[in-house]
Design a protein that fits this description.
The strands form 2 sheets. The chain has a 9-stranded antiparallel sheet with strand order 1-2-6-5-4-3-7-14-13. A 6-stranded mixed sheet has the order 11-10-9-8-12-15, covered by helices on one side. Helix 4 (93-111) packs across helix 6 (207-228) and helix 6 packs across helix 8. The protein is of the alpha+beta class and 351 residues long. The chain is 28% helix and 21% strand.
């Protein structure tokens, strides 16, 4: 067993991902999981909450047994996850995002483009909480099992899971209550997504709710887009008594930039907007004079999400947007790098 653990320690993350995808989980029963651990060449004493000894330098794997928060979403499974830590990175957002990005490139090279990607937001599967810096994930959906690359507490993890319980949990969060689902969820046209269900969303009922949800979203966005290797372009329109003009352009790759298209009777400077002279970093995103008003939110870990959200909400109100239902995310934002994305955590209309 010692020699076998030594060989596993040298195993690349790409090879580990291939083995996890090919593994037989046996329905995630106790016997099935025991056989899975043996197939992987690892060691486990059979106790539900005890670690799975992998011999990897990144640490032992964890099994998640079915308990109070998982039982209602399962159908005979005794476990819903095997999580394997891959690397430990410094806990700041930039380092965590860079570590995730490097791993996702390696796993994507091995398995192909993931069929699902997004962010869990602050509400992970089965009500887990994710890292403060962001909660990106990529998922290679399969049947009966799915492999997910997920942001863990100290670094990215590969999580092997039965497909149905995780998706059943997600689908059943669409109850319409504020903040019932967080983050964003994108799927592509991969055949692996046949039969994939999508939950309903929720609608923000107050400007305070919009401020909170928008602040959470913007604060983590550059770290998450950097980790996932995507670029989001998100226009916001504000419906007033007369029309629904473009108000904001939120653009985020490795940095967050926000442009403002306020009408002539509103003073953006008084609200807190600057120009390219104030925010020279936005010159690579917007031209020097269109939009005139903008802010540079910064890179991973730098955006002050709450303050940015307050700026957008104050501007929307000044323009004459009277209700949260009149702040609308442009439909262009739903298409990101071949994925159709739903921004569940915002609680705003898309159209």
């Amino acid at each position: 067993m010692t020699e076998q653990r030594g060989s596993i320690e040298e195993e690349s993350i790409a090879d580990l991902a291939r083995r996890l995808v090919a593994a037989d989980t046996g329905g995630w029963t106790p016997d099935g999981v025991r056989a899975l651990v043996a197939e992987l060449g690892w060691a486990w004493n059979g106790a539900a909450h005890d670690p799975v000894v992998t011999g990897r330098s990144s640490g032992d794997a964890r099994l998640r047994p079915v308990g109070e928060y998982e039982e209602r979403y399962t159908d005979g499974e005794s476990y819903v996850e095997l999580a394997v830590p891959l690397v430990t990175a410094p806990l700041d957002a930039a380092a965590q995002a860079a570590a995730f990005h490097a791993i996702q490139q390696e796993v994507t090279a091995a398995l192909g483009k993931p069929s699902v990607m997004g962010s869990h937001g602050d509400l992970g599967p089965f009500y887990d909480s994710g890292p403060i810096w962001g909660a990106p994930f990529m998922r290679w959906r399969g049947s009966p099992d799915t492999l997910e690359l997920r942001a863990g507490k100290t670094g990215p993890e590969l999580v092997l899971q039965p497909t149905d319980p995780a998706e059943n949990w997600f689908w059943r969060q669409g109850v319409g209550e504020e903040h019932s689902i967080s983050g964003f969820f994108g799927s592509n046209r991969d055949q692996a997504n046949a039969g994939l269900g999508f939950p309903g969303g929720w609608a923000a009922r107050s400007w305070e709710t919009v401020t909170r949800s928008l602040g959470d979203f913007l604060g983590a966005l550059p770290a998450e887009t950097t980790a996932l290797g995507i670029r989001i372009g998100m226009p916001f329109y504000g419906r007033t008594e007369c029309s629904a003009p473009l108000l904001f352009d939120v653009t985020c790759g490795d940095r967050l930039s926000i442009g403002c298209f306020a009408p002539d009777d509103v003073d953006p400077a008084a609200l807190g907007w600057g120009t390219v002279a104030d925010h020279p970093g936005t010159a690579s995103v917007f031209s020097d004079d269109d939009p005139v008003w903008r802010v540079d939110g910064g890179g991973p870990g730098e955006p002050k999400g709450r303050a940015l959200a307050e700026l957008l909400v104050a501007t929307a109100k000044a323009v004459g947007v009277s209700e949260p239902t009149d702040l609308i995310v442009g439909g262009e934002a739903e298409y990101v790098d071949g994925y159709y994305v739903t921004y569940y955590g915002l609680g705003l209309r898309t159209g």
